[in-house]
Amino acid sequence: MFDQCVQFENSAIAPEIASYLLGETAPMVALKETLSLLAPTDAPVLATGQTGAGKEMVAQAVHAASGRSGSFVAVNCAAIPAELLESELFGHEKGAFTGAENRRIGRIEAAAGGTLFLDEIGDMPDGLQAKLLRVLETRRITRLGGSHDIEVDFRLVTATHRDLEVAVKEGKFRADLFYRINVFPVQVPPLAQRVGDIPLLLEHMIETRTARAPRGGAPHFTDAALAALARHDWPGNVRELRNTVERAMVLFAGRDIGAADIERLLGVSPLASAVEGAGDAEAPVCILKPGESINLRRHLQELEATLIQAALAQADGRVAQAARQLGLQRTTLIEKMKKLGLSAARAKAA
Ligand SMILES: Nc1ncnc2c1ncn2[C@@H]1O[C@H](COP(=O)(O)OP(=O)(O)OP(=O)(O)O)[C@@H](O)[C@H]1O
């Protein structure tokens, strides 16, 4: 499809793309080569793929390799209530509506000179789809309550786990907007199709987590454990792998992990497994070896820190969203973060 293959010092993969997206299997190499070609252009990119496969990582990688000096601005269209999404995207003038006490710059304007990433674009309400289409055609926006147009230059990357062609056929997504955003469709392969990348991803995840929580040492995945990981179907993709590593770091710190341990680690919340397993013929994940003593208070604190870090990372450092996922008040989460010395910014970078 791409005849003029740009070479990046012996490789067709741009260094920024390589640093964001780990993976050496054929589907990942093909994806990274395609992204390296399209990143420096202005063309819109539509990333599709299963949840947790790495669509947002693709968007960040495209931005990093685009040479654009502005910001990377991400908006999850499914996470923001429909009635707030318009003002979030377009911003508003003072007094535009009840409660609009100050002028607010919207996310589209904030992405000027950079990249606007619209995640879950398939969930965008119909009226807003029409407004977005107009912005893409005119490259201009009007803040809510505003009287003049503002020119905006941004690169658009969108993502969805839905089949937008089906959504168009069913009348749930505007055909004209679909053709506008679908200039460069890229499919992020599910982890089950690239299990050969698991050891590399594991190594990277353990390395970054060990720097943060060095107590107890890193767990060691045996060959049998790696084989068991390769057999799993990974419905939650790389995110599920990351969560599995988070659990392993706490529950198997400094220990070997075998195939049987993997079966227990996968898809089970560490808290649920510890409780469900108590007094059961099935041993809980957190097994005490005979004669071994642990500091329960410290273990629980580490588990708490790990889960909070995981929620913050998934919420891209947004404390309110992480608090919702953990079933905590925002203020309670902030207090816990202070006590445990955790930072939202660091979780975002992890
Ligand atoms: N190729 C990769 N290399 C390293 N880390 C990755 C890779 N792909 C995904 N990840 C990590 O996996 C997690 C999920 O990735 P991401 O948020 O990009 O997925 P997504 O497809 O956008 O998910 P969703 O559809 O739920 O929004 C993130 O922590 C991300 O850092």
Automatic annotation (TrEMBL):
Query: What CDD domains does the record tag this protein with?
Result: AAA
Keyword entries, A-Z? Activator, ATP-binding, DNA-binding, Nucleotide-binding, Transcription, Transcription regulation, Two-component regulatory system
Kindly state a single biological-process term from the GO annotations of this entry: regulation of DNA-templated transcription
Name one matching Pfam family: AAA_lid_14
The protein's superkingdom reads: Bacteria
Instruction: Cite the InterPro entries for this sequence.
Output: AAA+_ATPase (IPR003593), AAA_lid_NorR (IPR058031), Homeodomain-like_sf (IPR009057), HTH_Fis (IPR002197), P-loop_NTPase (IPR027417), Sigma_54_int (IPR002078), Sigma_54_int_dom_ATP-bd_2 (IPR025943), Sigma_54_int_dom_CS (IPR025944)
Q: Which GO terms describe its molecular function?
A: ATP binding; sequence-specific DNA binding
- In this protein, which residues make up the domain named Sigma-54 factor interaction? 21-250
Q: Does the keyword Kinase apply?
A: no
The record describes its quaternary structure and partners as: Interacts with sigma-54.
Q: What does this protein do?
A: Required for activation of most nif operons, which are directly involved in nitrogen fixation.
* Identification of the protein by name: Nif-specific regulatory protein
Species of provenance = Rhodovulum bhavnagarense
